[in-house]
Amino acid sequence: MPRRTALLLAASVPLMATAAALALRASRWELYVHRHRIELKPQPRRSCPDCQGAGGWWVDGANPEMEACGCWAYRRELRVRLLPLPAWPDEPPF
Predict the structure, then answer these.
(1) Closest of 64, 60, 44 to residue 52, by C-alpha
(2) pLDDT tens, position by position, 34-43
(3) Where is the signal peptide (predicted)?
(4) What is the 3-state secondary structure of the chain?
(5) Residue 94 to residue 90: CA distance in whole angstroms
(6) Which residues contact 21 (CB under 8 A, 6 or more apart)?
(7) What are the b/e assignments for 29-57, b being 16+ CB within 10 Å?
(8) Judging by beta carbons within 10 Å of its beta carbon (0-12, 13-18, 19+), is residue 75 exposed, middle or buried?
(9) pLDDT digits (tens, 9 = 90+) for 67-87
(10) Do residues 41 and 27 lie in contact, with contact meaning Cβ atoms separated by under 8 Å?
């Protein structure tokens, strides 16, 4: 029985990873994984009628800057901390 459970678990991991990747692409999220955190960041929609998937547009003026489109700019960024960041030492290194 433990061998069968291990085999089922080993087979389900690639399937779950593929399903998670498809769900992230369909909902327009970018996954960033680091040893200290996992982040999900929103991405612009390709079918957006305002920005056509570019994420925003340039505003004219003396100092041109990009204005972000509402299809992604106002969605929350999700972050999960995994490992604590190492503490900075109180003393200088030398």
Answers:
(1) 44
(2) 888 888 888 8
(3) 1-19
(4) CHHHHHHHHHHHHHHHHHHHHHHHHHCCEEEEECCCEEEEEECCCCCCCCCCCCCEEEECCCCCEEEECCCCCCCCCEEEECCCCCCCCCCCCC
(5) 12
(6) 31
(7) beeeeeeeeeebebbbbeebeebeeebbe
(8) middle
(9) 889 888 888 888 888 877 777
(10) no
Answer whether residue 91 shows pLDDT above 80: no
The burial class, CB within 10 Å (0-12 / 13-18 / 19+), for 23 is exposed
